[in-house]
Write a structure and sequence with these properties.
- By secondary structure, the protein is α+β, with helices and mostly antiparallel strands.
- Helix content is 38%, strand content 19%.
- Among the domains are: 147 residues, Neutral Protease Domain 2 (Neutral Protease, domain 2); 100 residues, Serine Threonine Protein Phosphatase 5, Tetratricopeptide repeat.
- The protein is built from 18 helices and 21 strands.
- The strands form 5 sheets. The chain has a 7-stranded mixed β-sheet with strand order 5-4-8-2-1-11-13, with no helix packed on it.
- Strand 4 and strand 5 form a beta hairpin.
- The structure holds ligand BES and zinc ion (ZN).
- Ligand BES binds next to strand 18 and helix 4.
- The site of zinc ion has 4 residues, from helix 5.
Length: 615
């Protein structure tokens, strides 16, 4: 029989990925993946807003790996397990024995299910609890519309287990289908085909035919309208923010088209966005087919849309090619930050892309002086720690700088071909850092010898800090801002003469971040009077200004800071402010604000802040 070229290329792709396969050891799962893996999930869940619980069952379809194996181990955290049944060889359903172990602070509770034979399907009836680490439940008063409740999930890194009993490891993949019931007037959406949620009637069906790691299973439910932006993209949002979001993110289709050209076809069909309430603890989350987005990037001038480029980029790095363990997070986030910036360059030009590189690099350099040395490595050693605790911009920006370094050494043509081939070879697979290193050696370093040494690669991936010859992105535009700032600070230039009317948000951020940390009160008043920074409606600018102002005791910001801290829950924009308030003698005030803001924060943000105030 003649095989088609299509089949051959598929075979090659899988062989080449297999050639690099090194068994991943994921210390953050209890799952016995070497014995049995679930390949498909069916979720049947009721969204109970009154009790803040998801209630129903998950059915796992199982593929057994070892002949003698008779048990399935799932990850859970704070779940109530009601009963477990499995399908016997005769096709009847029977109760299965199960034990739920004591709760481990990081990993949760191991759920062990035992069978008499190797069951093909098993159903776990359960409910999540109000304190689920991966869910936020909002009352109507905490939403923009004030009329309907809202709930959403955030499963990365190891929170899927707080709302689904699952083999919660990025080293495995499942397809899934779901039926979700809500109050009639609420719409639910998932990281799946959402056509089954078009009619708003409280009964929704979802289908995710592509295999994804469990951390990408996601749900949101609320007073959601939607609007198409292009043939492939739409926004789900509360009506109050829908039109502004559609305007802000109008370039999404162009981003998809450019990325597909550079790195291979977009694999997921539609790319929609779900606008979350401001309490969402992240900027964005790359849930496949439906990125989850903070409203704090709807600035009114498209200045923060690199966030969309970032979440979209994960459709290649992360969702197609996935980190095998959380110690390999840099493979997801470093590649994504690199691709994000390439998208920004394609859509908005080189100047803006370089400004974003320079801002991120400055942020990374500041951070490197603050965190413990082991956490400045790309390939992290978590040693059982919660992946959330080692989270920083290291995997993002150091990872990105490593890839920029390679791009500069080999030239775009060769490097782009390498990245494209890497995405293709490992599509729908999970990769460890060691596998990546072998692939990189074979397909770039040894293929074009004498350009980058293997030792240099090892230094980037395994040594702390930044290599001495790391790229140091500089922007001409920022150089001009620096010159103007200097003229104002030291040469008597009037503030009104700064060419600030033409500054982009990036120039503003560079300006504020580079002002002396000990600016005197007159200077602060002068700045605030001239530019009204305390009341900036751009969350990033406001954040940068508050950080400067707290540092040098400029008290006029406090009412605005209180509003900022109670109005939003994005960790990146609130945690450093609390930290700085505490270290500048304002702990009592900060704690008062926090206790007031706490009920509207996500459990993850609450956890971070509770720890900070407990110290
Ligand atoms: N996947 C991340 C968020 C994440 C990472 C959640 C690790 C939990 C564990 C998302 O893609 C992300 O990186 N968001 C950034 C975007 C920014 C770099 C443009 C954020 O939220 O700030
Ligand atoms: Zn990311």
């Amino acid at each position: 029989m003649k095989s088609s070229p299509f089949k051959i290329s598929l075979l090659c792709a899988s062989l080449s990925a297999q050639a690099y396969a090194i068994a991943a050891i994921d210390e953050h799962t209890y799952a016995n993946l070497d014995e049995v893996v679930s390949t498909h999930l069916y979720l049947d869940l009721n969204v109970d807003f009154a009790d803040k619980e998801l209630e129903g069952f998950v059915e796992h379809t199982l593929a057994w790996k070892k002949k003698q194996a008779r048990s399935l181990v799932l990850d859970t955290r704070d779940l109530t397990i009601h009963r477990v049944i499995y399908e016997t060889a005769e096709g009847t359903w029977k109760a299965a024995k199960f034990t739920l172990a004591d709760r481990d602070d990081v990993k949760g509770s191991k759920l062990t299910i035992t069978f008499q034979n190797q069951a093909k399907r098993v159903r776990v009836y359960y409910n999540s609890r109000p304190e689920a680490s991966g869910l936020q439940w909002l009352t109507p008063e905490q939403t923009a519309s004030k009329s309907h409740p809202f709930m959403y999930s955030q499963s990365q890194a190891i929170h899927a287990r707080s709302w689904i009993p699952v083999q919660d490891s990025p080293a495995m993949r499942v397809t899934y289908q779901a039926r979700v019931q809500t109050p009639k007037e609420v719409r639910a959406v998932m990281s799946a085909d959402n056509t089954g949620a078009i009619i708003r009637d409280g009964d929704y069906h979802f289908d995710m035919p592509q295999a994804i790691p469990p951390y990408l299973i996601a749900i949101g439910a609320g007073n959601l309208d939607y609007k198409e932006m292009s043939h492939q993209t739409a926004i789900f949002a509360e009506q109050q923010i829908l039109d502004a979001s559609v305007w802000e993110f109008a370039d999404t289709q162009a981003m998809i088209d450019k990325t597909s050209k550079m790195y291979g076809e977009y694999a997921w069909g539609r790319y929609d966005l779900l606008m979350l309430p401001p309490s969402f603890p992240f900027g964005g989350m790359e849930n496949p087919r439906l990125s989850f987005i903070t409203p704090t990037v709807v600035a009114g001038d498209r200045s923060l849309v690199n966030l969309i480029a970032h979440e979209l980029a994960h459709s290649w790095s992360g969702n197609l090619v996935t980190n095998a363990t959380w110690e390999d997070l840099w493979l997801n986030e470093g590649f994504t930050s690199y691709v994000e910036n390439r998208i920004m360059e394609e859509v908005f030009g080189r100047e803006r892309a370089v400004m974003e590189q320079a801002l991120d690099t400055a942020g990374l350099k500041a951070l490197l002086t603050q965190i413990s040395e082991p956490d400045t490595r790309l390939n992290l050693k978590l040693n059982g720690r919660d992946p959330d605790d080692a989270f920083s911009s290291v995997p993002y920006t150091k990872g990105q700088l490593f890839l920029i370094y390679l791009e500069e050494k080999y030239g775009r043509e060769k490097f782009d071909a390498f990245v494209k081939s890497y995405f293709k070879a490992f599509s729908f697979k999970s990769v460890t850092t060691a596998e990546f290193e072998r692939y990189l050696a074979d397909n770039l370093i040894n293929k074009y010898p004498g350009i980058v040494s293997p030792e240099k690669v090892t230094e980037w991936i395994h040594a702390p800090g930044l290599p001495a010859d790391a790229p140091n992105p500089t922007s001409d535009v920022f150089d001009k801002v620096d010159a103007e700032t200097k003229a104002w600070l030291t040469a008597g230039k009037a503030i009104a003469e700064l060419p600030s009317a033409q500054w982009t948000v990036h120039e503003w951020l560079h300006f504020i971040n580079n002002l002396p940390r000990d600016l005197n009160q007159e200077r602060m008043v002068e700045l605030d009077k001239a530019f009204n920074l305390t009341d900036s409606t751009n969350a990033e600018i406001a954040f940068a200004w508050y950080m400067l102002a707290i540092g040098n005791g400029y008290e006029a910001i406090y009412p605005a800071v209180e509003k900022h801290l109670t109005g939003i829950g994005r960790r990146k924009l609130i945690v450093p402010i609390y930290k700085s308030l505490i270290s500048h003698g304002k702990k009592a005030w900060a704690e008062k604000v926090y206790l007031n803001a706490r009920p509207s924060y996500h459990p993850l943000a609450q956890g971070t802040m509770d720890d900070m105030f407990a110290q």
